[in-house]
Amino acid sequence: MKEKSADLVNRLKWLLVLILLLAGIAANYYYASIPWAIRTSIGIVLLAILAALALWTIQGAKAWEFMKAARVELRKVVWPTRQETTQTTLVVVAMVVVTALFLWGVDTLFFWAVSLITGQRG
After folding, report:
1. Are residues 28 and 43 in the same domain?
2. Long-range CB contacts (< 8 A, 24+ apart) of 89-96?
3. Residues 15, 54: contact at Cβ < 8 Å?
4. Is 85 in the same domain as 99?
5. How far, CA to CA in Å, does 35 sit from each of 30, 55, 64, 95, 106?
6. Do 66 and 100 fall into the same domain?
7. Most buried among 8, 15, 58, 116, by the most CB within 10 A?
8. Residues 75, 79, 82, CA angle at the centre, nearest 5°?
9. Are residues 115 and 101 in the same domain?
10. Could you tell me if 6 and 63 lie in one domain?
C-alpha cells in the first residue's frame, strides 16, 4: 500500500513538472511582445523550479546519486601533464603525416600501374 502511494505521489510530481513546462512554453509564445531578456529570465527561473521538482522524484533522486558518484570517480582520474599531452599530440600528428605519405605513395603506384595496363599513359 505504501509503495502504491509513493508511486502515485511520484507520478503526480512528474505530471506537475510536465504541466509547468507546457505552461511555461505556452506563456513564452503568448507573451511574445515582452522583451526576450525578461522572458528568458523567467524561463531560467522556471527551469530551476522544474529541476528542483524533478529531483524530488524517485528517478530524480537516483539521477542525483549517480551524479554524485560520477563526481567522486572524476576526482580519481589522473590527468596527463602538459608535457605528456604535448608529446602525445606530436606523436599523433607525426603518425598522421606518415600514414598520409604512405597512402599517397600507394595511390600513386596504383595509378601508375593502372595507366600502364590500360595504355592511358601519355
Report:
1. yes
2. none
3. no
4. yes
5. 12, 31, 34, 53, 61
6. no
7. 58
8. 145
9. yes
10. yes
> Three-state DSSP class for 82?
helix
Residue count of the chain, please give it. 122
Cell of 116: 600502364
Domain coverage including residue 67: 2-76
* Residue 7 and residue 40 in contact, taking contact as beta carbons nearer than 8 Å: no
- Could you read off the pLDDT of 63-80 as tens digits, one per residue? 999 999 999 999 999 999
| Whether residue 72 is found in the same domain as residue 112 | no
Q: In this structure, how many other beta carbons lie within 10 angstroms of the beta carbon of residue 17?
A: 19
The pLDDT score that the predictor gives to residue 8 is: 87
Amino acid present at 109: L
pTM check: above 0.90:
no
Residues 6+ apart with CB under 8 A from 57: 10, 13, 14, 17
Mean pLDDT for all residues in the chain: 92
